[in-house]
Write a structure and sequence with these properties.
Blueprint lengths: L1 H11 L6 H17 L5 E5 L2 E8 L4 E8 L13 E3 L2 E3 L3 H18 L7 E8 L10 H6 L6 E4 L7 E5 L1 E10 L14 H13 L15 E9 L9 E10 L5 H9 L5 E8 L2 E2 L5 H13 L7 E4 L5 H5 L5 E3 L4 E2 L7 E3 H16 L4
Parallel strand pairs: 3-6, 3-7, 7-15, 8-14
Antiparallel strand pairs: 1-2, 2-6, 4-5, 5-17, 8-13, 9-11, 9-12, 10-11, 16-17
Length: 357
């Protein structure tokens, strides 16, 4: 366990919330792998670095995906602290614990005959800002596999589905008038609020699945009005909708368009992750988690947010979120549970050795 912990401590010290330092983190990972006898390839797209490293030469490919970039943090969060079985620091859980475990697993796997299996480590630098320069690029370039594990912190559980993302703005026009005579104008803010409540009542908003109770609808921003004594004639509202795997974003947009005369403009879209729990690789991983992790049950669940899994799903490659235990990621008290690091690494090694069986 100490080797993973030492590596994780070094990784946390990189303030990889910036592109420059995230790239430096990739360079450090390449140097660490080289010292352990593993060659790697560094790929650059739009200034963002990615690392690809392979062990084994088989036809069955398992992809281990990790991101070294983090959200911004306070200065002290980049000095890791160990207390009561936890390691604290920005990125400790999300997701440098998974990255460190992957790297040590790759070191150990290089000395094992994997038969018809190739394990490919992919490390990227822009997951926290959307993944367009790295995971999206890699998958478009054919860096795919038979199964993908993204080491997001899942408490040694499996996030096998994920909601899609639909972010958009609606621009409303009204008519200005004196604030003392609002009936002579048309209040654009009031129009926007009416549409918000209509959206909550649309058919898509009331749908559910066996995994998800409903889509997530976040009324994220509103901008309108200038002064107290004037009826606002413009208003811009913004939404972040995470839609269900069985829903279609074009249908959702059509429903919204039917209840507004405002102008809709898209900011960000991303497909959902639609794996079935019956997938043989997922079932096999569950068995390895039970055996290696000494668990009677494995939590299998859907994710409300999104990860780089969605880029592999575009190509019908089953991709899941599965990582070590931790908490408060993106928060001031972010931590990873140290004991879970070795367990996670051992599960990855066991699963990799038997991937083709």
């Amino acid at each position: 366990m100490q080797d993973i912990l030492d590596l994780l401590e070094h990784l946390i010290q990189f303030d990889s919330s910036s592109q420059h330092t995230a790239n430096e983190t990739i360079d450090y990972c390449a140097e660490w792998l080289q010292k352990e006898g593993l060659g790697s390839e560094i790929i650059i797209n739009n200034g963002y670095k990615m690392l690809v490293c392979n062990v084994g030469e088989g036809n069955k490919k398992l992809v281990l995906n990790g991101h070294v970039d983090v959200v911004s943090g306070k200065k002290n969060q980049f000095t890791p602290q160990i207390e009561e079985g936890k390691i604290y620091g920005r990125g400790s859980a999300d997701m440098k614990a998974g990255v460190a475990s992957f790297m040590v697993a790759m070191r150990d796997l290089k000395n094992i005959d994997l038969g018809d299996v190739c394990v490919q480590l992919q490390l990227v630098t822009d997951e926290e800002i959307g993944g367009y320069n790295c995971a999206s690029y890699l998958t478009d370039q054919g860096y795919l596999g038979d199964f993908v594990i993204c080491a997001e912190p899942t408490q040694i559980g499996i996030g096998f589905q994920a909601k899609g993302i639909l972010q958009f703005d609606i621009q409303f026009k009204g008519k200005s008038a004196h604030g003392s005579r609002p009936w002579e104008g048309e209040n654009a803010i009031a129009k926007a609020m009416e549409v918000y409540y209509k959206i909550l009542d649309l058919p898509f908003a009331k749908e559910s699945t066996d995994i998800f109770d409903a889509p997530s609808i976040n009324f994220a921003k509103i901008k309108g009005g200038e002064v107290y004594n004037k009826v606002p004639d413009e208003c811009l509202i913004s939404f972040d909708i995470r839609y269900l795997p069985n829903q279609d974003k074009e249908d959702i947009l059509a429903q919204i368009n039917d209840v507004t005369d405002g102008e809709i403009s898209l900011n960000l879209t991303g497909s959902s992750v639609k794996n079935e729990i019956s997938n043989p690789y997922i079932q096999k991983l569950i068995q390895h988690i039970k055996t290696v992790g000494d668990k009677n049950q494995v939590e299998v669940f859907g994710q409300h947010g999104f990860a780089d899994t969605r880029y592999y799903s575009r190509y019908d490659v089953p991709a899941i979120e599965f990582g070590p235990s931790g908490g408060e990621w993106h928060g001031d008290g972010e931590y990873a549970i140290i004991e879970s690091l070795e367990t996670y690494k051992d599960i990855i090694i066991s699963f990799s050795k038997n991937f083709a069986h």
